[in-house]
Amino acid sequence: xxxxxxxxxxxxxxxxxxxxxxxxxxxxxxxxxxxxxxxxxxxxxxxxxxxxxxxxxxxxxxxxxxxxxxxxxxxxxxxxxxxxxxxxxxxxxxxxxxxxxxxxxxxxxxxxxxxxxxxxxxxxxxxxxxxxxxxxxxxxxxxxxxxxxxxxxxxxxxxxxxxxxxxxxxxxxxxxxxxxxxxxxxxxxxxxxxxxxxxxxxxxxxxxxxxxxxxxx
Length: 217
What we know:
It is built from seven helices and no strands. By secondary structure, it is an all-alpha fold. Helix 3 packs antiparallel against helix 4 (97-114). The longest helix has 31 residues, at 57-87. The relative contact order is 0.11.
């Protein structure tokens, strides 16, 4: 049963990921290059993860956390790029990009230092949680800029909403897994489901609008 759920999750995730990449390659990748980088990395990491199923557990765990750190860094890049895009149409004064980058790097370093005494899996889970919380805060800054804009960017709002949903699900899922072993499956399902919803919202947001049908005279 668990194996069937795992393969179903991989199949759905790969399909949604390919839909987002396909839509981006129609031209919107120029405006959102970090979204393309993130989805391509997510696609590659999923394929590698499937290929490592026969590998020893230590190899799988080592790969998982390397992959998780890379994706967390790309999420920061995505949010900061979104903030830059939103700031162009906002009436509010926003924080400079380099301060956002420095702040993210500082939080990452502090999180590693605080949790260094924990076991590897627990340490990396806590670090990943901290980074996701930081990304959610940045996403809230992004929303404040979007709401303050004279003409809100609908696509950017949907992209931000999808990312915020994914990050919130990841944080809540990790907390449930840490709280009790009996909630391990529930936390995993929550994280996976919100990840799917986030990709689906990205796909719908990036699809070109259909041309309006002409009304006969």
